[in-house]
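If it is no trouble, can you show me the amino acids of a protein and the tokens describing how it folds?
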Amino acid sequence: MNLNFASDNTGPAHPKVMEAVLRANDHAAMPYGNDPVTEAAVAAVRAAFEAPEAEVAFVATGTAANALALSCLVRPFESVFCSRVAHIEEDECAAPEFYMGGAKLTLVDETDGKIDPDDFAAKLSAAMDRGVHGAQPAALSLTQITERGAVYSLNEIATLTGLARDAGLATHLDGARFANACAALGCSPAEMTWKAGIDAVGFGGTKNGCLGVEAVVMFEPPRGRELALRRKRGGHLWSKQRYLSAQMLAYVQDGLWLEMARSANAASARLAEGLRSLRGARILHEAAGNLIFAELPRAAHARAFAAGASYYLFPGDTPLDGDPETAVRCRLVCDWSKSDSEVDALIASWAG
């Protein structure tokens, strides 16, 4: 039984995605995205976002998606506002700063990973007052689902993008778990992006059943040409682009992306319910999608790992020997393939 709850990256690719890649391998096709599969995939993403004029570029990693999108929104002497725990701040090895030519990140306080509007307004006002001596405010980056498992409501997104827009800032959405957020909110991709004031989004597929593909979607056509050039210059234009495109086409067609996200979210909700039933267990942040941060007694973790479970403890070097009742934090992630029996087995291992 698979008790790996470390990340949605550990899950398998969906068979329909694999089949699409194999179909793309059946014949020769022109390189660099000049092929029918890429054309169809771009059209499918535009249709999903209700954005027929949007520029769509496929890349293989979320880091590339974020860095390339932001590089189109800011110049080297400007700044991007983001959460203190944003992936672009903590987990991308300064790739955004590299692709932006040295532009800086300005960190904003958060709750459950959500940017606090008042702190954003205060940080923005202070940056505006620095004149030539400070990095010029240029963009706001949000993460949906947040790095703590919470989901911004549509109103919360609109409030933050409204503050940004009033100050002349562009807006970016890191959507590595975009599908899970859409499933949690019951909204459309358009409602969670351009209709809520977002200028650019990384529409994630890798964490949600693809081999490795993300779509960078720019809703302002004038920025589209720059995205195409930056993708090439940055080394992210595949010569055999159809293998990325085939994944995205299968992902978007017939709502597979949403079906998988709903499955992952349902598994996570079942896991959260089980956690709440355990003595000494506590969920630490809002858990609206497929990502849970919790704490359990050290002895419960030891039992789970002995049963073959895999997930991250925080801090990562936390020993399993010691006071068995001490609460130890962990992160638990469900991918689209997680079954009820796997979830129940993990809960049972904690219970002992």
In short: The longest strand covers residues 136-143. The chain has a mean pLDDT of 96.
